[in-house]
């Protein structure tokens, strides 16, 4: 697999379950919070669903003339059953609650396969019970990608969805579509675009043109989603960049309110991507806003390479360039490449004029890069985390720009923020389980560090030797990069008096003898 190419999306399906006898003007749907322990989209609100399995195609689905659709109906129904215990098969109305529970147990313990289980009880699906409402493809910026079929279905009157023990879901509830959407508008939940689109569409009622409204956006017909609003007023706009594999994109953020826009990290050097970003900015401008500033989280080329192109565009579009703001150390390193007009100091607040009021507090958080800044919105708990925490790939600490001691201190500064709700990293999807994710980063670094120290105490002396012993889970191609990370750990251990540098490239342990 070529690591510079985005992943190929895998087939998946989800069910938007409607409550029996719900109010058609504001229907109730079943939505669930994904477990905060999950590495991918942990803490997000979603509909029950998941990835296609081979045996999904072996299940009888009547009134469907397309084998692919039939298999995806079967997949969606299986996932719904596994995650919330609701069985949409025809014939299942005669099953008792106990029988359904035992079937679920058979399926989850793999005593019975999905097709066998259905045939044992003479059950089948009918395509008329499943209304297709779109196929959405995960944008190419994520560590996992799905081509997800969404189906609308009515929950059978006698069944009550309940998150099962083995589920990836943490909790679920019936909620009126309008209330669910309002929760997102109040920044209380994080969700992916197809879920928000479904809630918004259903909030308009179960009208005759419901399916048309679902399919009215091109993204519901597999067109790539570019503008991702995980959180209201924060557009994540991934642009293709020559970044560190496996990531292929860098997130540019457009933070906007009724009057102003802040652009954070327009990082693509590619013209087609710069044009796509400029189009998105233009859409916001044409609604009466101005670009107040372009802000940089840090110095790396995949975060700054599109600044000048965007400003050239703004000069043509609105008659003036936007001021560029960054930390002083970032500005110094970018001299002759990007002119920085304003320095941002630690703790300084960037305020957007207009509605709603958006205040972003700058946090000086070096470690990945010397002038690294994060931006924290105290009201909603959103944190632009730059490359300190990312939704895809790992964070490289490469000395001398990178510093492990500072990096860990920065992670702890981020961890100490009182009401974090979502992290917007430089790469990959938003992170809706911020505290769990930061803890995971800290733990991972400290474990690596302990291993490195133990290896030095056993006699390994150079970063190369240490990598060979410690990074056994990393492909040899990545060893050069791993050596930089080991060096960063060794520098930190030296500061702490635990190792001593004995030559350009060698270290030995001091202190505790073993
Ligand atoms: Zn970076």
Question: What's the arrangement of secondary structure elements?
Answer:
Layout: E1 10-18, E2 28-34, E3 45-46, E4 49-51, E5 61-62, H1 67-84, H2 97-108, H3 114-120, E6 125-126, E7 131-137, E8 146-154, E9 169-176, H4 177-185, H5 193-203, H6 210-214, E10 228-231, E11 234-240, E12 249-256, E13 260-264, H7 271-286, E14 290-295, H8 301-304, H9 307-318, E15 323-326, H10 328-333, E16 342-343, E17 349-352, E18 358-364, E19 373-377, E20 382-386, H11 404-415, E21 422-425, H12 434-457, H13 463-470, H14 479-495, E22 499-503, E23 506-509
Parallel strand pairs: 1-8, 5-6, 13-14, 14-15, 15-16, 20-21
Antiparallel strand pairs: 1-4, 2-3, 2-9, 7-8, 10-11, 11-12, 12-13, 17-18, 18-19, 19-20, 22-23
Helix pairs in contact: 4-5, 7-9, 11-12, 12-14, 13-14
The chain binds zinc ion (ZN).
Q: What does the model show?
A:
The protein is an alpha/beta fold and 514 residues long. The chain is 31% helix and 23% strand. It has 14 helices and 23 strands. The protein has helices spanning 67-84, 97-108, 114-120, 177-185, 193-203, 210-214, 271-286, 301-304, 307-318, 328-333, 404-415, 434-457, 463-470, 479-495; strands at residues 10-18, 28-34, 45-46, 49-51, 61-62, 125-126, 131-137, 146-154, 169-176, 228-231, 234-240, 249-256, 260-264, 290-295, 323-326, 342-343, 349-352, 358-364, 373-377, 382-386, 422-425, 499-503, 506-509. It has a seven-stranded mixed beta sheet. It has a five-stranded mixed beta sheet with strand order 17-18-19-20-21. Strands 4-1-8-7 form a four-stranded mixed beta sheet. A hairpin with a 3-residue loop joins strand 12 (249-256) and strand 13. The chain is globular. Zinc ion (ZN) binds next to loops.
């Amino acid at each position: 697999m070529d690591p510079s190419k985005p992943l190929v999306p895998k087939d998946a399906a989800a069910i938007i379950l409607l409550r029996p006898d719900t109010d058609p003007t504001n229907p109730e749907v079943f939505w669930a919070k994904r477990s905060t322990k999950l590495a991918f989209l942990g803490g997000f609100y979603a509909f029950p669903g998941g990835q296609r399995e081979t045996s999904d195609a072996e299940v009888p689905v009547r009134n469907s003339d397309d084998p692919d659709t039939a298999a995806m109906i079967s997949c969606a129904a299986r996932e719904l059953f596994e995650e919330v215990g609701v069985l949409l098969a025809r014939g299942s109305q005669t099953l008792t609650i106990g029988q359904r529970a035992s079937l679920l147990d058979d399926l989850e313990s793999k005593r019975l396969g999905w097709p066998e289980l259905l045939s044992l009880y003479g059950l089948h699906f009918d395509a008329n019970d499943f209304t297709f409402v779109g196929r959405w493809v995960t944008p190419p910026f994520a560590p996992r990608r799905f081509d997800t079929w969404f189906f609308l279905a009515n929950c059978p009157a006698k069944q009550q969805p309940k998150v099962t023990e083995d589920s990836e879901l943490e909790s679920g509830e019936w909620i009126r579509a309008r209330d669910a959407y309002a929760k997102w508008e109040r920044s209380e939940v994080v969700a992916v675009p197809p879920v928000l689109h479904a809630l918004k569409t259903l909030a308009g009622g179960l009208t005759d043109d419901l399916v048309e409204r679902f399919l009215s956006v091109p993204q519901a017909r597999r067109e790539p989603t570019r503008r991702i609003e995980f959180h209201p007023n924060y557009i994540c706009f991934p642009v293709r960049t020559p970044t560190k594999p496996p990531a292929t994109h860098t997130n540019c953020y457009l933070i906007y309110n009724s009057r102003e826009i802040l652009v954070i990290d327009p990082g693509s050097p590619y013209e087609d991507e710069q044009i796509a970003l400029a189009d998105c900015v233009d859409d916001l401008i044409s609604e009466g806003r101005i670009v107040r500033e372009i802000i940089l989280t840090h110095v790396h080329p995949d975060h700054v390479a599109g600044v000048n192109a965007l400003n050239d565009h703004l000069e043509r579009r609105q008659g003036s360039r936007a001021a560029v703001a960054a930390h002083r150390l970032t500005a110094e390193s970018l001299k002759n490449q990007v002119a920085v007009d304003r320095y941002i100091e630690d703790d300084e607040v960037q305020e957007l004029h207009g509605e709603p009021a958006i205040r972003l507090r700058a946090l000086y958080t070096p470690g990945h890069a010397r002038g690294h800044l994060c931006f924290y919105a105290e009201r909603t708990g959103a944190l632009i985390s730059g490359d300190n925490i990312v939704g895809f790939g790992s964070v490289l600490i490469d000395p001398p720009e990178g510093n492990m001691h500072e990096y860990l201190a920065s992670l702890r500064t981020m961890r100490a923020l009182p009401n974090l709700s979502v992290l917007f990293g430089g790469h990959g999807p938003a992170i809706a389980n911020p505290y769990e994710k930061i803890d995971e980063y800290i733990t991972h670094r400290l474990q690596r560090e302990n291993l490195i120290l133990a290896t030095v105490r056993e006699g390994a002396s150079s970063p190369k030797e240490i990598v060979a012993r410690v990074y056994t889970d990393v492909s040899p191609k990545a060893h050069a990069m791993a050596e930089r990370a080991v060096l960063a750990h060794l520098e930190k251990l030296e500061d702490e008096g635990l190792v001593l540098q004995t030559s350009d490239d060698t270290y030995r342990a001091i202190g505790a003898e073993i």
